[in-house]
Amino acid sequence: MESAAVGAMSEEENAAVQEAAELPGSATGSESMFRAPTKIPILLDTDIGSDIDDAVALAYLLKQPQCELLGITTVSGEPEKRASLADAVCQAAGRSGIPIHVGTGKPLLVAQRQPEASQFEALQNSYPHRLFEPNHTAVEFLRQTIRARPNEITLLTIGPLTNIALLFAADPEIPAMLKQLVMMGGRFFPSSPDGANGEWNILCDPHAAAIVFEARVPKLIAVGLDVTEQCTMAAEECRERFIEVGGPLLSVAAMAEVWFRHTQKITFHDPLAAALIFEPELCGVVDTRVDVELCQPGKVGDTLLRQEGTLSGHQVARAVNSKAFFAHYFAIVGAGKQ
């Protein structure tokens, strides 16, 4: 196990940011005919270590040939342990060079709902990983990386939105400098009798979520609980398929055993949001405006659709082809396996 203290961005990471800012050279003639498919630059903000689906999503991004993963930031309780978990998955994929930065461990105003990164125990004396200090360098890393590549980056958020709210508050120009923001968060079409609209990532920091939904991002796509709950897989099938595929999913399988103490299935919330970036036809979406309830007792954190705001740049997923999603997911993570 390698130990590393993470503070300000290293010289290597600063060089990577500067290199990212340079436009690729143009190709002419026959060269342009054989250009590799354009990669999509992505920053991932995650609370990996609570629900297992964050690690499942990260394994997908690491294997997705169209993904240029610029860096990972962690959020929520014990963010330094979450960084170690992300690093373990990266190392299992042979991608140890991806920048990983520790973010904030506490929500803006509400009480902490997930103080621990319980899956960290799966790494003990096992999968190689670095140790991180709680230096909270995530927001500055995100700010510098986005400014280096204006209007190019997709920001993928699969945890509470605290880091992103702090980023937008610290540098109000950043939202408009993104290409898009894709999130797993919210519940928009409730079917329960009580009409509950709560979803974990939003409930963990509703005030941060409200800041993010109010920001002037060119395009914001929210994949909510109504849709992701249609993408579930039983624990035994997950074990078999993760081990069969190998690579980064071997480390994920070890983390999943901690998760399986509480439930015997995995819902692929975050992997669906990640896959939608590359395969938008997997989900039907609707144009709308999303607000977050902050005042009504018992409803704080509910995500509300305001149909009159259809030109706000918000889209929410309305339906999913779950069969096509699983086929796509395992085709990507299993690519190259002999």
Structural overview:
The chain has 338 residues and is α/β, with parallel strands linked by helices. The protein contains 14 helices and 14 strands. The protein has helices at 11-21, 30-33, 53-63, 79-92, 138-148, 162-170, 174-177, 200-204, 206-214, 225-228, 235-245, 248-259, 269-278, 322-333, and strands at residues 2-3, 40-46, 67-74, 100-102, 130-131, 154-157, 180-184, 220-223, 232-234, 265-267, 283-288, 290-292, 303-305, 314-320. Strand 2 (40-46), helix 3 and strand 3 (67-74) form a beta-alpha-beta unit. The longest helix is centred in the N-terminal third of the chain and has 14 residues, at 79-92. It is globular, with a radius of gyration of 19 Å. Residues 1-8 and 19-34 have low confidence and may be disordered.
